[in-house]
Write a structure and sequence with these properties.
Blueprint lengths: L5 E9 L5 E10 L4 E5 L6 H9 L6 E6 L2 E2 L5 H7 E4 L12 H11 L4 H15 L14 H13 L5 E5 L7 H13 L3 E5 L3 H7 L2 E6 L2 E7 H5 L2 H6 L19
Parallel strand pairs: 3-8, 3-9, 6-7, 7-8
Antiparallel strand pairs: 1-2, 1-4, 4-5, 9-10
Length: 251
């Protein structure tokens, strides 16, 4: 399944004002991996996602999805393989019903309406919201909108699921439901987040980004237990790994 592999080779990117956001970055993500990309604000996480998806293009180096290089010419193929769930689901949901939002991508593929309906029903079942299919997305709760946005991406049947701050603005119950949902997905996953407890539960590998470079890349438990490394990158250990604030003992 080489088409599931995502490779970044010696990536460089600078904005028009000269700010160098990505500096000589290289890594490979293989089929089935769940990778958390973490770092302080301004570290380069969002720029990296934009480069992976072809929203921006590098000044040097390359991004490959399988054996296909991300270029303007290959974007239609790349966008079928990589599915992005936006940080704010309101940026992703715009139709009058949840069903039509989830069907929008498959319909753009010119699939038959029968195949579209099959994909929509499967995606809604996967995220547990088939009962919301006829509801207006604008009338949903934050957690329901997030689930609908994920379903809209899953209906496109991407090889890699990319999520930008998936737990942002969710209440505790919706956050827990999303975590369980992500843990159940067999997709290759890339998740950027400041919610390190969520990353600890859903990712088996972490890439730490600092000032546009990779500061660390390794097993989740090892990275998130390294308080010195996290502190040097403007981060803190997940709350679940910190000592009790009252007695000081380990949890």
């Amino acid at each position: 399944m080489s088409h599931h592999k995502l490779e970044v080779r010696d990536l460089h990117f600078s904005y028009p004002d000269g700010y160098e956001a990505i500096k000589s970055m290289s890594f490979t993500i293989h089929h089935g991996e769940a990778v958390g990309i973490i770092g302080a604000n301004g570290a380069g996480k969002s720029t990296l996602l934009h480069l992976l998806l072809g929203i921006l293009f590098p000044n040097g180096g390359e991004v490959l999805v399988g054996d296909v290089r991300v270029t303007r010419r290959t974007l239609p193929m790349i966008r079928q393989r990589l599915g992005l769930v936006f940080q704010d689901p309101d940026d992703q949901l715009f139709m009058t019903t949840v069903y039509d939002d989830v069907a929008f991508g498959p319909r753009n593929y010119k699939l038959s309406e029968g195949e579209v309906e099959s994909r929509v029903n499967k995606a809604l079942e996967m995220v547990g919201i088939p009962h919301l299919r006829d509801r207006s997305p604008m009338k949903l709760s934050g957690g329901e909108k997030r689930s609908a946005a994920i379903a809209a991406v899953l209906a496109m049947q991407p090889d890699v699921l990319i999520m930008d701050e998936p737990t942002a603005a969710l209440d505790p119950k919706s956050r827990r439901r999303l975590i369980e949902l992500l843990k159940g997905f067999e997709h290759t996953k890339i998740i950027t987040s400041h919610d390190l407890d969520m990353v600890l539960e859903t990712c088996n590998r972490i890439i730490v980004v600092k000032e546009g470079e990779i500061a660390a890349d390794g097993a989740t438990e090892e990275i998130l237990a390294n308080a010195q490394l996290l502190d040097s990158c403007g981060l803190e250990e997940p709350l679940s790994l910190q000592n009790c604030p009252i007695c000081g003992s380990a949890k």
